[in-house]
Every structure is written in C-alpha cells, then in structure tokens.
Write a structure and sequence with these properties.
Oligomer: single chain
Radius of gyration: 38 Å
Largest sheet: 8 strands, mixed
Number of helices: 6
Structural class: alpha+beta
Distance between the termini: 133 Å
Helix content: 10-25%
Strand content: 25-35%
Length: 481
Amino acid sequence: MHKLFLLLFLTSILAISCNKEGDLTINQPPKTFFSLDEINLSGENRLNSIVSLSWYGTDPDGYVVGYELSYDKQNWFFTTSQDSIFRFSILGGSDTVDIELFVRAIDNNQLVDPNPARLVIPLRNTPPVISFSDKLTIPHEVNLVATTEWSATDLDGDETITQVYLSLDNKRWVQISRTNRTISIVPSDPKASDSTNALIYYGTSSQPAANQLEGLILNDSNRLFIKTIDQAGAESKIDSTTSFYLKGKTHDVLVIGGLAAADQSYQQILSAINLNHDFLNFAANNGEKQPKIWNITLKLQLSFYNKLFLYSDESLFDNSFSGVKGMILEFAAASLQDYANKGGKYFISTSFTHATNIEGFAGVLPIASLSTKNYGTARFFRDSVAFSNLPNFPDINPSGFVLIGVPVFNIDSADTEVLYEANLSERRPTEPWTDTKIVASGRRVNGQLNQVFFSVQLWELNGNQQNLEDLFDQILNVEFN
C-alpha cells in the first residue's frame, strides 16, 4: 500500500513538472494590429504627409510591454506609445508616394510578434501657400522705400518649404531668405530716369541682400510678386501686392513735414535760401504716408540724404501696424539716431506741452529733460528775442502776437551745447522767467554742427523774416556743409 502511494505521488510530481516545462516551451508570442486595417484612398483624396496613427497588441499568456516600428523591417525603433503623429517626407520627382509602416508588439518575456502588422499609407504632397500681409501693405505712393511682409504655410509642415522667390512685375524671379519675412525694396540708383535694379533689405538690416530685383521703375507704378516651393518641388500659387507708385530721389536734402499749418511758411523760407529738397508729408490725411515700421522704412529713406529738416508738434498719430499711438518724434527717434551715427545732419523744429512725455527721444535728440516749472505760464512777447552766443546766428522773435507756454528744456552738458535761449516772461512782461530758458541745442562732430534741435515753432518767430531766413541759411547751407 505504501509503495503504491509513493508511486502515485512520484507520478503526479513528474506530470506537474512536465506540464510546467511544456508551458515554457509553448509560450505564445504577442499579436499586433493597426487600428486601421487599410487606407483605401487614391488621387486627390490621398493623405497629406502629416498622419495620425494608432496600434495595439494582445498576448494570450502574458502582457505587452512595448512596440517596435519600422519602415523597412530592418531598422526598428522601440516605443511604449500606442499612437503617434508622423511627418513623412515626399521627395522631388513625384507628388504622391505609398509609405509602408510596420509595427510589432513585445511581451513581458521579450518575445516579439514574428508577423508584424503592416499598413500602406497613400500620401499626396500638398502645395505650399504664400501671401503678402494684409496688415503691412505697401501704400499707393511711397518715397524710395517699399516695405511689406509675407507669410507661408504648408499642410505637410512649414519646414518642408525650401525656397521663396520674389519678382518685380512678374519679371525675373530672385530667390530670397525663407526666414526673414519683412522685406524692403529700394532703388540701386535712386535718381534713375528709367528703370533700375532694386536692392532687397531684410528686417532692420542696414545691409542689402546679395540678390537684386530687376525692373524697378522710378516715378511710376510697380508691383511685387511672390511664390514658394516645397521639398517635393510643388510650387505655390503666385501672390502679388497692389500696384504702388515709387518716387525717386531728386535732391540731396530731405524735408519731412509733420505740421500742416507750417508747410507754406517753411517752403517760402527754403525757397528764399535756394535749398532744393525732396518733401515727405507725414501730416497729410492723419499721417497716411507715415511709415508703418519706422525703424525700417524711415531709416532706409534717410540713408539717401545728407541733410534733413523735420518739423512737427506734439500731435499724436495712430500706427495702424503696431497699434501704438505717438508723436512723430517718438516714432522717428531710432531712425534719427542711426542717421546721425552714419554722418547724417538733421535740423528739427517742434513744440511740446508741459505734460509731454519725452522719454521716447530724450538723449537721442540733444535734449535731456523738460523744465520742472509749469511753462504753461512762460510767455514770449513780441519785443522779446531768442538769442545765441554763436556768431552768424541772428536773434529771432515772434511778430504781432504773444507765444504762450513756450517749451524750455535742459541739456546734457557732456555732449550738447546751448544754441539759443529766450528772454521769456511770466504772465506779464515785467515778470521775468526764472527757470531754464533754453529753446535750442545742438551737437557737433569734428567741430561742425550735425544736430540742431529747437523746441519752438520757428515759423512763428518771423518778427524779422530776414533773420529767420538767415538762421536757416546758416544751419543748412553753412554749418551742415
């Protein structure tokens, strides 16, 4: 009996051992599936190169710990994810391609599905799209510089855009930068009587690109065209700006008007001193002709001129591109600084109220701060004068009226000098003004004035018209030469 029991026991142990050994030898591999069995698309209905896919695996005697993906069943990439967004590449020569993708599951015993799931993905390259900005448009008329920007997209991924081309009036196409999307074009010969090449500037750069556009017509209408190409060779539709009239350069002096009431007076003075000049009207139609990006467009416009006369006041203008409201001097400050640094000479006449914030241009212009006293009480009476200690700078004074609230300021004596002070009074002529009386200052380079700033409206100081004309002649025709 004991022998029989022992035999049965040993037989059971052996059977159990065999079963366990058999279990190990017949461990089942996992199986893998794409969520889609197939993608039946063709022609125009094919997918673009960005595709979202998912997959899963099952294991009858364990669990799945990860997956391997491959395009060729040779090179595999491990992941624990069950979905991903793929960006496939469609190379040049065809706008369609069928991509094979394989996936295989791996179980907890590191057993790999010997029959990976396979999915054929039919792709069609989508042409890129490019257009000029609706916000930074080129005005109907521009002086020397036309500034705009463009944007481009591609459903296959913006990084697939490989080339961007620009053309004037659909003539010879020139490849331009893909990354610098704000561009300005200026004539290579600003005084050309017919057509000339156009230089291309990117962003705020002061150096033109190597390529030039052909066929820019000065003092006539022009139009910019743009297109782009992706890595598969697909070309976008062509976009273009509206037609714009580009004025060329006539003289070496630029006058910028920012105060309509003063236009006629200054034109008479400049004519009297025989100063031929080009004119930019920044006050007309609520500043319609002002640059939308000042530190690009104005900077390039100023680069064509040796001398600048600018007049304005404290009026605020809206910049339709940036949404910022400001004075002309605030918008122009950075360009004026660049202009002076490169040897340009400027003469400015403006005015402020006591509450004007000058932080945007203090220091850039030869002015440090405004008077701390309420100069709304400062009067410039008819028999008073603005005087200078410099030779050949005549006295000037108002005619027939009293200037109220004359702006006075302080300077930084380190690099700035006083050009004019005024005999101002309080509310009555017998009450002298007790604060700073500076109304004009300047800076020099190699002993010659190259920056002149007046905080008063000079056209109103015409009590002696000849003296006023002599002042303009001294600054623009003598000092600035």
